[in-house]
Predict the structure.
Amino acid sequence: MIDYSKMTIERFDAFVKSITVNDRIALVHDTDPDGICSGVLVATSVERIRQKPVDLVISKDHGKVTLTDGNLKMLQQHKINKLFTTDLGVDGDPATLKRAEETCEIIIFDHHKLVNDVNSPRTILIKSQYLVTRIDPSQYPASKLVYDLFSRHVDLSDRDWLAAAGLIADASAKTWQTFLDVLFVKYGEKKLDNIFDTPFGMVGRIITSTIGIEEGQVSALFECVLEAKSYRDILASRFRKYEEKYSAELQRCINEHKKKAEFHRELERMWYEIKSPYKINSPVSTILSFMPEYLSTTIIVLQDMHDGFYAISGRRQDGKVAMNDLLADCVNGLENANGGGHRPAAGAKVAKKDLQIFKERFMKALQALLAKKD
Ligand SMILES: [Mn+2]
């Protein structure tokens, strides 16, 4: 049984009931599979509730998970009075949120680490950890959260595959086995050993690949997912070809890791700098982290983004190291850097000139953790 927090649910219900055709509604979503699937579920729900689409969709580019001045300007230009955000830790910047509150009522759907309790008369913060306390919030992705909550008000059963795609991409399939098993039967799809090879897994792969190769496609991709009556429409879309290219590149990076990564067995550490024309560090780190021999390895995969910054992904699947805290500590005080995410999977952005500092801090932190264990 899911232990819902009563107050959050009641406020959410009242908010949904207050939605009318006259509202100016915006959606701000993250641009990974969970962010897009949860965003599409919000957009679909709003449209079904009031028979009119959302008025504005803002797709966040990677690296900034909080609202920007540019986002606020857009909200004002479009006279938005109700705002939904999905899969973004916007609670990391309460000041900007307060400014958004001057014109908008806000609902935040998120499952990242709680940074600030930004609940207020104008804002409802819906963190997975408020609703379910017995699992790590990384295991209750935004897509499933949005699906569960909006299903209280509108029939989304024909879009359940969006919840599946989002949670599989966020490495949460094990937590939702029963939910997924029902869908495999319902749609007559085979359950495969590798969940990422199933059609629901493939939806996420197509999203990751498209954005990893051509970030400018994000609006078209969002539209495609929104219009799709079934996951089959996405698998048959023009975005499928990105997945093929990306998969090959992913395989190359995985194949080369033994040769090119730096290992430090004593510290249970892997440090792997990859070079690729695509933004690919995050899926490379995820795949490595689930290889049986690396389940107890702290993995860093980084990539020069050729914009003065490194994109960094950290993974550790056995739960012994909190990657979100670790990366946040390592970037603390560095110029234009940021870091955070989930306990098993986190990300960071660091200026090229500060990479050495980051690496030293990372090594020191692991040594300190190791000392604690002894
Ligand atoms: Mn997510």
Observations:
- The CA atoms of residues 25 and 185 lie 36 Å apart.
- The mean pLDDT is 95.
